[in-house]
Amino acid sequence: MTSCFHCGLPVLEPGRHRAFLLGAERELCCVGCEAVASTIAAGGFERYYEVRTRNASRVPAPSDGPLIEEPPNGEASLILERITCGACLWLIEEVLRRTAGVREVHVNFATRRAQVAWDPAVATLAGIVAAIRGVGYDACPYEPRRQEDAERRERRTALWRVFVAAFGAMQVMMYAFPAYVDEVSADSLQVMRWASLLITLPVLFFSCQPFFAGARRELAAGAIGLETPIALGLAAGFAASAWATLTARGEVYFDSISMLAFLLLSARYAEGELRRRAVRSLDRLLTLVPRKDLAPGTSAVVAPGERFPADGVLLSGRSSADESLLTGESRAVAKRPGDAVVGGSVNLEQPVTMKVTRVGSDTQAAAIARLAERAGASKPRLVEAADRVARVLTYVVIAVAALSGLYWENVWVGVAVLVVTCPCALALSAPVVLTRAASRLLGHGALLTRASALEALERATDVVIDKTGTLTEGRLAVARATILGRLDEQACLSLAASLEATSRHPIARAFSGMETRPVEAHHAVGEGIEGRVDGRLVRIGRRDFCAALCGSSLEKDIPASVFLADESGWLAAFELEDRLRPDAVAAIARMKERVTVHLASGDREEIVEDVAGRLGIARWQGAMTPQAKHDYVERLQREGRVVAMIGDGLNDAPVLALADVSFAMGAGADAAQLRADVVLTGNSLQAVLDAFQLSRKAMSLVRQNLAWALAYNALALPLAALGHIGPWEAAIFMAASSAAVLANAARPLEIDTAWKASTSSSPSRSPSYS
Amino acid sequence: MESLYLLVPLSVALVFLIGWLFWRALESGQFDDLERPAQDVLADDDRPK
Question: Which residue of B has its CA nearest to A108?
Answer without folding.
Answer: B33
